[in-house]
Amino acid sequence: MTTRATMRTLDETRGAVRVEDLYDTNIADLWQACTTPERLARWIARVDGDLRVGGTIQAVFTSSWTGPARIEVCDAPHHLLLTTEPGTGDEGQIEAWLAEEGSKTRLVVEERGLPTGQLPFHAAGWRVHLEDLSRSLQINGPVHPQGWSSDAGAPDWKERWDELTPTYLQTEIS
User: Dihedral angle at the C-alpha atoms of 35, 146, 25, 92, nearest 10 degrees?
Assistant: First the structure.
């Protein structure tokens, strides 16, 4: 699998990061990995809260980002849309689409509303997240057993992010 990440501007101050990869699993399994708290905790975030459309969850990502997100769309097993930091004036969106490709499933994730100066850092971060998802599916378990918190991200996540960030700092934003 090769995770691809791209960056684009939305206006003078905000932009979006889009990442995608093709996973060697069926769409139902990948949907579960992307939407159930137990599976999410294996690769990207601990989440709890009101897990329904219109509900708000609280997330602690392996990157150490912590915050609320409102579930806007949950169309299993193809489409998920979250609004991050709802009601703060600094809202963003994370949207995921899943599509079957033979016996595999493509996942596309886009995060929108990011400050343009931060796009390379988020592109590197999302690439690490999707790589972690791949490893989680391969081992059928957690990829960060040492844990993480809102104060300190998962050490392996941070190490890989540090490796990738210079590449994205040199990548053109469309």
Answer: 40
Domain residue ranges of the chain, discontinuous segments joined by +: 4-169
- Distance in angstroms (rounded) separating the CA atoms of residues 80 and 96: 5
Domain 4-169 class?
A: alpha beta
Helix (H, G, I), strand (E, B) or coil at 141: coil
Cβ(101)–Cβ(30) below 8 Å: no
Total residue count of the chain as it appears in this document: 174
User: What angle, 0 to 180 degrees and rounded to 10, lies between the N-to-C axes of helices 119-139 and 27-35?
Assistant: 120
Q: Are 106 and 22 in contact (CB under 8 A)?
A: yes
Sheet holding 66-75, edge to edge: 4-9, 14-23, 104-115, 92-101, 79-84, 66-75, 56-61, 45-49
Is 29 in a helix, a strand, or coil? helix
CA–CA distance, 19 with 129 (Å, rounded to integer):
10
| The predicted structure's pLDDT at residue 90 | 86
Residues 162, 5: Cα–Cα separation, whole Å: 16
> What are the tens digits of pLDDT across the range 43-91?
999 999 999 999 999 999 999 999 999 999 999 999 999 999 998 888 9
Please report, as a single letter, which amino acid is at residue 86.
P
